[in-house]
Design brief:
single chain; alpha+beta; five-stranded mixed beta sheet; four-stranded mixed beta sheet; 3 helices; 9 strands; 33% strand
């Protein structure tokens, strides 16, 4: 099923997390916790290290890493407390360049959609059953417009 690495070289050993820059950290934290993610760690960063990582001066940011139960994959919500982030509250399209979406496996897609809507998100399409496998898929937006894909196996 998986192809071999480029010229047999292993460079990436795991996926650590997916970072989402958010406008309202508390609101987005409630949204993702409402979908069943748990806080793994949380911190505020400022100083030379984060300035060098981001390429900006005098950065002051806060992040929260979240994960589903018994899973190592994480989402990192990042809030810049100064004006280095630009967020247009325009819903992303799946064909835009850059990060397209974040996908989550769910037990019950209909309940998950209702929870997304109850938490301030929105549904883009009705669940669609794949012809190649026995999965149902739906696209939604979180309250700040990030595209999320819910997949029921």
């Amino acid at each position: 099923m998986y192809s071999r690495c480029y010229k047999g070289k292993i460079l990436i050993t795991e996926i650590r997390h997916t970072g989402l820059v958010v406008k309202n950290l508390d609101k987005m934290l409630r949204f993702y916790q409402g979908l069943g993610l748990y806080i793994v760690s949380r911190d505020i960063e400022k100083g030379n290290f984060i300035d060098n990582v981001t390429g900006y001066r005098n950065v002051n940011l806060e992040w929260v890493k979240l994960s589903p139960p018994n899973n190592i994959n994480m989402i990192e919500l990042i809030k810049y407390h100064n004006n280095y982030s630009k967020i247009d509250l325009i819903k992303k399209s799946p064909n835009q360049y850059g990060c397209s979406h974040v996908a989550f496996t769910v037990e019950n897609i209909d309940k998950a959609i209702k929870q997304v809507i109850n938490l301030g998100g929105s549904k883009i399409n009705d669940p669609v059953k794949s012809k190649k496998s026995n999965v149902k898929v739906v696209y939604c937006n979180d309250p700040e417009g990030t595209l999320i894909e819910l997949v029921e196996i």
